[in-house]
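Here is one chain, start to finish.
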Amino acid sequence: MHDAVSLVRRAEVDTLGPVEVPTIARRSSWTGGAVQQRLRRLNLITTVPPLAIVGVLLLLTARTWWHVVIQVIGLVAALATAERWTAGDYLRVARPSFAVTAVVWLAGSLTDDPATFFGLSAVGSFLVPPLPRRRLAALAGFTALVAVLGAANVLVHDDRVGPRLIQYAAVPAVAVLLATGFMFASQRFFDLIAELEQSREREAELAVTRERVRFAGDLHDIQGHTLHVVKLKTALAEKLLDSDLDRARAELAEVRSLVGDTIVQTKELAHAQRRLNLSAELENAKNLFEAAGIHVHVERESEVDARAGELLGQVLRETTTNILRHAEARQVRITLSRSGIEIVNDGAAEDGEPELSGLSALRHRLAEHGGELRVSRTDGRFRTAAAFPAWRTGKGGR
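Its structure:
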């Protein structure tokens, strides 16, 4: 039996190839991949425009051209840092920007322009939250730096010391605490979004893996019993060679017949013919998509012709696997007609020509039965359609 099981395992590997189990890796940045690109666009929309608007409004408070110049320098540094932060590649820009905005704030406090602290508060709020440790200490040091640079105002303006310390030290320090606190919450929010997207991707990969394991189980059911019986019958035939040659021949004939039946069943399984049912495949596809967080909408224009159900079920199964493995789909629409099926999903890659992948073999099988298989891609949507035109009018057959 051990030999039979070994043969079954080897047959499974030859048929299925190595099973790829998805690994869970910690995301180090928001760069790379469709998920990260979507997060970056979301960050750009929610971060850069508000910074630019506040910076422009503060420019309106400038009293001299000199104040306009230093405020613009601080605003440009803050916007550059924000743009790089959304891409997950901000340190090489944030560090020099921090030094520039610190000088801008010092120059502004010495020349009596309280609005120049904005650039430094923005850049610092991007730097502190991503720190791996001692973030509170870094926040305290950053707040103290802003207050000290602002307090330099009283060195050149000795009138109204108390109000000036409030305006140039206390208010900027509180503003820095608020801005950094907002960035803490914002980063946590976007981290949660990224984790949810990654969970969705892992669910999709897991769904594909479950399907492959199910296939391996079916293959084991077909071949496991057969190989065990073959082992016993060949051993019996070997013993009968010297005592009962006719019976030995009969046993070997049974072995040959059994092996032939198993080959047929294995081929049928490889072509998804064994116990294939369109309704079952439709339910299986819905479960797989829902497990991956994809919304599924099924439309039934009419009852599917029984002659077409088997091949259309194969198309649905292969298309489901392709969507889960190769698309960033959020919605899938499945339309069933009397002699055809159409599957449309969003999240398709825009570049390159549509590929049939595993559907190429099915296209030939459909053609042998008078059917056709077409794929197309338009505006990020991938369409897979299979139909038997001759059967729409009740003509044709197998």
